[in-house]
Amino acid sequence: MKNRSEDGSSMIGVYRRSDGSSSILSFNGSDISRQSTDQTKQGHQSLVEWLNETLPYLNLPWEASEEELRACLMDGTVLCNLLNQLSPGSMRMGGSFEPGCVNIERFLAAMDEMALPRFESLKALKASFSDDKNTLFARRRWSLPEDHSKGVDTNFNDASQFKEASDQINKSHAQISDLLKSNSLQNTSTRSLFDMLDKLLDESPQKMNVTHAFASILRGIVQVVEQRISNQAENLKNQNILFRVREEKYRSRINVLETLASGTSDKNELKKQKQRSDAEVSNLKRELENVIETQEKQFLELKLNAQKARVELEKQLKDSELRVVEAKELEKLCETETKRWEKKEETYKSFINYQTEALQELKATSMSLKREVLKTGENYFQDLNYYGVKLRGVAHAAKNYQLVVEENRRLYNEVQELKGNIRVYCRIRPFLQGQNKKQTSIQYTGENGELVVASPLKQGKDTHRLFKFNKVFGPASTQEEVFLDTRPLIRSILDGYNVCIFAYGQTGSGKTYTMSGPSITSEEDWGVNYRALNDLFHLTQSRQNSVEYEVGVQMVEIYNEQVRDLLSQDVPDASMHSVNSTEDVLELMNVGLMNRAVSSTTLNEKSSRSHSVVSVHVRGVDVKTESVFRGSLHLVDLAGSERVGRSEVTGDRLKEALHINKSLSALGDVIFALAHKNPHVPYRNSKLTQVLQNSLGGQAKTLMFVQINPDEDSYAETVSTLKFAERVSGVELGAARSYKEGRDVRQLMEQVSNLKDMIAKKDEELLKFQSMGMPKRGLSKLRIGSPPRRHSLGGDLTNSPRKRQGSGLLGRTTSDSADERRHQNEPRSPSKLSGGAKDSNIIEDIELLGIEDSDNEERLSDISDSCLSMGTETDGSIGSGAMELALFPETSSPTKISEQIEHNDKSANVGSSKPLKHTPKPDQTRPSRLSISNTSSKALTSSKRPITGSSSAKPLNRKK
Ligand SMILES: Nc1ncnc2c1ncn2[C@@H]1O[C@H](COP(=O)(O)OP(=O)(O)OP(=O)(O)O)[C@@H](O)[C@H]1O
């Protein structure tokens, strides 16, 4: 608490007594005013005591009054000495203290320096220096800033030094906080406060990790503030000096006045002057106090501002720190980003370079392309013009294409006809291994088809026999050479002709070798069968743009006059298999060969005792005209033709041989009948001739391979075989006819089919009548020439509607009862079959066959029930005349019909290529209609599965 003396004299200090009362010591140069409300004597005495102890020369009485004490201290010398005693060196006066105000000022300055309150000077001094130990401490404490500043500048050499410095800093902080708590900071001099601030700032960089630059900035600011404060202080000092000057002036005046007073007698006047002077002094004191108060206020304001500035600065410092950290992070981020962008820039640069290069290349390519396009365009237009001209030619040619194709076919067929529709090629088998020593019966083979055979055993002129065929293949001929001369016929099949190729000869003469080949694994060994089908597929492929072909294959064997399907065991009739490639055919024929019945004989261990027939049915549709072509190829590997006597077989084997010979004889009969243009051709005499019916005759092309065994032992058989072949080759069968159906024909076929259905219904009705017990007489009228017995592979087919439809590729329908009857009445004499008794060999053959006329009826009945019935016996053609006959059955009068039949029979047998107007006799009307079976197309179109083929038994035919 600060108090001010009422008289305005300079205030030196205020001290507080221990009992709580306050005392003011004021120094005005002449006295020490003391204002006390309750001063205890004890406190006063202790003070005197302390003064005496400290400055013994004072020797103040123990009970010295305040006035005495004040008088003692008044000139300031005692105070200076006291302070010098307590704190040596604190008073920088060289040890001598002249009495006067100057001493008091020094004392006050020293107090300020030691941060002791001015107004409790003595008490503070006493308290500070009462204890010896504390004396040193106090001194140290006030000199701490200097020490500490030194410490701050010191470089710490080790951790212990650093710790020590850190401890000192902490201590000084503690002291500062103590000062703050004890409010003594308020009384601390400005200088000291700034020292402390300075000290703190020195500490800050270490403790708070503030950058040195910042600290220096802060310090600079503080210095500025300090400068300002020091300016203020300087002002104050100046003012003080001014006041002191004035005080001195007044004091000198007082002295003058006192001198004058001593010289004058007028005491009152002196008193008055003294009072005026006192008044002036007190005025000056008040002025001084006011100035001090103003300065203190200003100082406080400045301090406050400094604190605020400091807080603000600290805040800014923290912000700056944060910003610095942020800036550093940002800097790092910027660096990484910069690097990244640099990398990207590099990448983009290289990419752009690459793109630019690519662009250049593209531009160049584009330019060259443009040029090429232009060039191509020009070429294109040139070509277009060129092709336009060509196209006109082609279009013109295309108009005539069909005509040319037709012409081509016609010419081709004419060539084939000129070559002969039946051709005989003779092939001589080479000697087999182990037959080297054997003599050959073949004496000569000529290029022109001449062959001379002779028996080495017989001597004489007539021993040599000359035969002439279309071609003779010697033992060295290859399979390919043999097929080369067969190939032209294959094309005919695709043009709608029927072709039959069969191999005839004694057992072991090489029939199977020629037809199938020794093995199918090697293409070189392929026989005629495989090569023909292979060719067929190649031709269909080459023609596929103009004609769509479907090919179906059947494979049967005729064994003991029974037909057996070699491709399917389960179906009763010959099954049709659709084939699309040679591979399909190979597969099928492999199966067929495996199924073929083979039995051993003494002549040929593996000799086949059956005829095998591979039938290929082709249906072609002309894409443009929609005309349908049908062609068929029969590839027949006949059973051995040797004589029964030589085979030395008995029992079942004998029966087999007899059947084989019988069927071969029937084949001979057919050929001879055709050769002699007999009105009747006995196709029905064997299953073989039935099967081959549409391939043997006026409209078919036939090729026979006559196989010869060169062995001298087989001479007789060879001669027999060659004679047979010679006769066949001499037959002129007439022009072949292509089976070409136009749209009209197909429509007619459909009508025929409908009519057949109607007839079938009528058949059923007839059967009903029969079962109802109609008079036998009436029935007998209907059943003219009914067969005595029926045998069929498929069992009794009489009532089967399916059979009545007569479907199947092979189905060319069944028997003609009139023909049958006529056939039965025909005497089967050797002369008739052979064309005369002149040829004794034929008679010999027939004898060997052992065929009796009594067999005829049974044989014919077998044929009529055949599953593979192949057509009428009346003529070898597919009877287009028969079709017409079926179409107009009711319109023709009986007389006319009979005439027409006779006419047709004749014309058929002379090989007329024109469609025949075949009108049946009254009792033949229905059978004739039924003799047409246009089912092959149906069979082909559904030929993915086995098709019941040619077993189209016609119940009505048999019933009539
Ligand atoms: N041109 C030939 N070149 C070589 N060997 C042949 C020739 N012709 C036939 N052969 C061989 O003669 C033997 C009998 O031939 P193949 O079986 O073809 O006679 P085949 O007339 O069919 O007899 P079969 O009537 O008993 O069936 C076979 O071993 C066959 O390989």
From TrEMBL:
Q: Where is the composition biased (Polar residues)?
A: 927-954
Which positions in this protein are listed as binding ATP?
A: G505, Q506, T507, G508, S509, G510, K511, T512
In terms of superkingdom, the source organism counts as Eukaryota
The GO terms describing molecular function are:
ATP binding; microtubule binding; microtubule motor activity
Residues annotated as domain Kinesin motor? 421-731
SMART domains for the chain = KISc (SM00129)
PROSITE patterns noted in UniProt? CH, KINESIN_MOTOR_1, KINESIN_MOTOR_2
Coiled-coil features, chain-numbered ranges: 267-330
UniProt keywords (A-Z) are: ATP-binding, Coiled coil, Microtubule, Motor protein, Nucleotide-binding
Q: Which Gene Ontology biological process is one annotated for this entry?
A: microtubule-based movement
Q: List the record's Gene Ontology CC terms alphabetically.
A: microtubule
Tell me which residues make up the Calponin-homology (CH) domain. Answer: 41-149
Q: Which InterPro entries match?
A: CH_dom, CH_dom_sf, Kinesin-like_fam, Kinesin_motor_CS, Kinesin_motor_dom, Kinesin_motor_dom_sf, P-loop_NTPase
The record's region (Disordered) falls at: 777-840, 889-960
UniProt family annotation = Belongs to the TRAFAC class myosin-kinesin ATPase superfamily. Kinesin family. KIN-14 subfamily.
Matching entries from PANTHER family are given as:
KINESIN-LIKE PROTEIN KIN-14K (PTHR47972:SF32), KINESIN-LIKE PROTEIN KLP-3 (PTHR47972)
Question: This protein is called what?
Answer: Kinesin-like protein
> What is this organism's lineage?
Eukaryota, Viridiplantae, Streptophyta, Embryophyta, Tracheophyta
